[in-house]
Amino acid sequence: MKTAFVVSLIASLALASPHGPGDSPKAVPAARTKTNPKGAAFVANFPPTAKIQGSVLASTAPSGQGVLFSIKISGLPATGGPFMYHVHDQPVPASGACADAKAHLDPWARGEVPACNASDKDSCQVGDLSGKYGNITTSGAVEKSFIDLYSSLAPGDEAYIANRSVVVHTSDKTRIGCANFLPLKI
Ligand SMILES: *[C@@H]1O[C@H](CO)[C@@H](O)[C@H](O)[C@H]1NC(C)=O
Ligand SMILES: *[C@@H]1O[C@H](CO)[C@@H](O)[C@H](O)[C@H]1NC(C)=O
Ligand SMILES: *[C@@H]1O[C@H](CO)[C@@H](O)[C@H](O)[C@H]1NC(C)=O
Ligand SMILES: [Cu+2]
Fold first, then answer.
1. What confidence tens digit (pLDDT) does each residue in 175-186 have?
2. Among the four 16, 43, 70, 103, which has the fewest Cβ within 10 Å?
3. CA of 29 to the centre of ligand 1 (A)
4. Local structure of residue 11 (DSSP, 8 states)
5. 130 lies in a domain?
6. In which family does this protein belong, per the annotation (predicted)?
């Protein structure tokens, strides 16, 4: 009896989809990307129509593991902070409409709740950069760099960020700037 129960339990676990929408957020920790190509670099430049100026550079980290993000933003308004910034799933279309960037890059369908715990980055959405590395709490200009082990610059990876976008938000989630990651031309 007991054995039969255990066997059926194991069978039902094995059948469960690893990325199903009903999974608890911690069921599938974000994969750490180990295949970032050396020297890959993409940049998202906020367009003149955005309320903020600047860029987000994403390049393979010097160690080869993870993506080095270098954020340089100016023109952050005096009110509306703290500001959040994320990699979003879709690119911004030619119209520049930030809403069309859709939701955060979340290849493992982790969802929005509970909020990302920065002490447990494995459990956060891949695209939730401010959840993992902190909100921008200043107005005006800011520079910030960090290495994210979950984002990918390897084409074909679920967490590939090129051809997607970065979005900056006020604390009420209003999108005040968005731009696509495009190959860096030196
Ligand atoms: C965040 O993660 C750390 C490390 O796993 C844990 O000790 C802490 O309790 C977590 N905080 C919350 C609010 O879950
Ligand atoms: C971005 O998408 C376009 C159109 O699908 C494709 O031609 C291009 O190779 C992609 N670029 C990258 C860096 O993946
Ligand atoms: C970042 O700001 C948002 C919006 O105010 C807030 O909900 C979130 O808790 C903040 N995150 C941290 C880690 O302080
Ligand atoms: Cu966002």
1. 999 999 999 987
2. 16
3. 15
4. H
5. yes
6. Belongs to the Cu-Zn superoxide dismutase family.
- Based on the structure, what is the number of domains in the chain? 1
Q: Which of 119, 129, 179 is nearest to 151 (CA)?
A: 129
Q: Which two tokens mark 71?
A: 């954020």
Mutating to test ligand 2, I would choose from 163, 180, 181, 184 the residue with most ligand atoms within 8 A of its C-beta, which is: 163
Pairwise CA distance, residues 131 & 105, whole Å: 13
- Does residue 27 belong to any structural domain of this protein? no
Ligand 3 centroid from CA 120, angstroms: 16
Q: Any idea what DSSP says for residue 29?
A: P
pTM as predicted: 0.85
Alpha helices (H) in the chain, listed in sequence order? 2-15, 129-133
How remote is the CA of residue 133 from the centroid of ligand 4, in Å? 14
What CATH number is given to the structural domain containing 105?
2.60.40.200
Would you state the pLDDT for residue 34? 74
The answer as to whether 90 is a domain residue is yes
